[in-house]
Amino acid sequence: MKLGNLVRDQWVTGDGDGRTLKSAVSGDTIATITSDGLDFKDILNYARTVGGPNLRQLTFHERGDRLKALAQYLNERRKTFYALSYETGATKADSWIDIDGGISTLFVFSSKGRREMPNDHVYLDGAPEELSRNGTFKGQHIYTSKLGAAIHINAFNFPVWGMLEKLAPTLLAGVPAIVKPASSTAYLTEAVVRSIIESGILPHGSLQLICGGVGDLFDHLDCQDTIAFTGSKWTAEKLQTHPNVIAQSVAFTAETDSLNASTLGPDAVAGTPEFDLFVKEVVREMTVKAGQKCTAIRRIIAPAASSADLVRALSEALASVRVGNPASKDVDMGALASHGQRDEVAERIATLSAEASIVHGGSADFDVVDADAQKGSFFMPTLLHCDAPLSASAVHSVEAFGPVATVLPYETLDEAIALSRKGEGSLAGSVFTNDDAVARELILGTAAYHGRMLVINRHCAGESTGHGSPLPHLVHGGPGRAGGGEEMGGVRGVLHYMQRTAIQGSPQSLTAIGNRWVRGADENTDTVHPFRKTFEQLRIGDTLNTETREVTLEDINHFAEFTGDTFYAHTDEEAARKNPFFDGRVAHGYLIVSFAAGLFVDPDFGPVLANYGVDDLRFLKPLNYGDSLKVRLTCKQKTLRGDSGYGEVRWDAEATNQDEEIVARYDVLTMVATDAHWASVQ
Ligand code: NAP
User: Fold this and answer.
1) Catalytic residue flag (residue 255)
2) Is 308's pLDDT higher than 90?
3) Residue in 531, 519, 585, 525 with CA at minimum distance from that of residue 555
4) Domain extents for the chain?
């Protein structure tokens, strides 16, 4: 079977016989792959002129809805992908990480997009910046979708997750994707893309797939395009220095290989829970996906005093790992992705063994369960030990992309830190200790060399997601050797596909551009109380200026007794005067907020359904008894919640005293009924 290329929403096959792709388990031919003869300029043009505009018609929330629908669709069909996944050498547990992990990434981005981004096309980055004395000229950073395409070039080890973890933030950003999977496992990616297209959930042009080489695609990229690459450092460098990528300043993010380290604390000697957790995690990291994980532990940094115990415990645990046919339930570790991969791992171990001795494994010639060791691409889990790691170089720089790791002993924490840094930049690092002072020293000493680090002890191990699992909520990527890129990390990952622009102008212009009211912009004060308006009737800028209320000493006393908040600043005149901030007893901050609500609410049954919190509350000036209080409440931002019957309305609240001095400022958060809901309950 020749793999399809998805071009202009049509499945087409490339010219010629292409490359043959074989099962990692049986060595049988599975498919051939070629993209020869495709018009790459046209593919790019279709993404830019059809996919981009279609996606950008949708708001962030609507795109999030599509991601959720897609996740549900794939979830119902995920079992069908498992059969192909076994052919890549993946066990059921490995396939779960790839397939179910990829689908869950879609769910998380869908949820983040709908909860943390506006139901709009523009994303505001922070609060307005004050740039002028009178407040008539301000600044606001905004993000808008880039107008080009995202080129995703993926590695072979996670054919599903690798695609979906890039696709989710890209589509949420309103940018179409052109996906190029690694050839050796592209048959699984292709099957998932067929399912995505069958679903009809994504707008036309949002996704195209190239199975094979990318031809002259890079020659046509420009500053609106983004390349997100995962693979080896060598390929990343080659692509990043493509003359057109340099000439057009095409955004390039790289996730490459790394010599990730896990460090055992000096307190975690044999017999402690942390020692046992460390052994378990190292073995897991070495054997999941047969060690073909960019985040896998390659360097095991351990106290010299514990290293003999550690080598013994790791060797025993590795000896019980059953290697063989990944579809068999008696197997713990499957095959490497190809014979080429197996041979490369053997070569890299040979290089490492110039500096380290093999203490377990080291061979591709061994008994495997329910498979032919010669036909499949199997390799024994292999542990090495390096006596002089500080002066070694290969153990810190040669990545054997398989079930291989090296123990590196240290004498002091400074040495442990120096060893970790010798990786010259990693995706993931971990520390196993029950001494938080050790944890702090190791993390502060090495965090600058890492994209993600975890600290494991007996208290969190049970719920830990593990050393090697990138999570959609957290950033994935790392400095130096790891490629210097960053992906995921929630909304951060979406913004990589958007352009940040600093906008300067009047508060009214900034309000219109960002759909969020900026102080100093127009205040619409009509006769209808804003709490009497439905979500649709409310306009950004609708403002209520309340009556004035005096705050008396009796009010403060009553509030103190009623709430139990008898803090001296509200109850003891003499003590309050000794406080540098107050000139005698002052009103409670929460009294101000409560009185403010009493001033601005409209009490009758109405479209405002609930107050669900306040944001950014600041008390700016004390309010003494005898002072008076009034409030300006302005509709600041509206976020419709799908067809739930309500939307969220954020109000800008400013409480002032009799001298127009600002006493408190905050955002009030409410849920307001839509026209339809309001009509149905009256
Ligand atoms: P690779 O050889 O660098 O290939 C990576 C991707 O680049 C593949 O899709 C490959 O396609 C493509 N590619 C190669 N040459 C290209 C070119 N001239 N133009 C366009 N695309 C090109 O890496 P690999 O062997 O597949 O993956 C293993 C490496 O990836 C390991 O070093 C591992 O550490 C790293 N990795 C990193 C991460 C991470 O998140 N940081 C994740 C997984 C793997 P073909 O397959 O068609 O050649």
Assistant:
1) yes
2) yes
3) 585
4) 5-123+145-255, 260-470, 523-681
